[in-house]
Prior knowledge:
There is one protein chain. The protein is an alpha/beta fold. 18% of the residues lie in helices and 32% in strands. The protein has two helices and six strands. It has a six-stranded mixed barrel with strand order 1-5-2-4-3-6. The chain starts with a helix and ends with a strand.
Amino acid sequence: MKSIRIFAVLFFLTLLSGCGSGKNASGSFYKRNVEVSYYADKFNGNKTASGEKFSNSKKTAAHRTLSFGTKIKVTNVANGKSVIVTINDRGPQKQSRELDLSKSAFMEITDNKNHGTLKVNMQIVK
């Protein structure tokens, strides 16, 4: 009887892990159609939450909960351009945004260099 309860709890937890805005297994969508922005140049040289020195020329991003070192494929919904970034900081501060990208990562996928936000899909690469 105890093993049945354990199995039921494990089964329920497995079901819960698949809920949310996307699956988080490697290569599958994590989030779709979310807003991202990019870091201002004034943050160059500052220490990130992971302890790294921030550089707008690297392909990095800030996320509130993903582990440092997680690689994310970020695809612009409007044009299909994508970039792979590494999570190395916490943020963004604005609740409506999912990621803060480094400027070089943002500029690689945008068509409008004068726009500060994009709608993107996110996939965990590893």
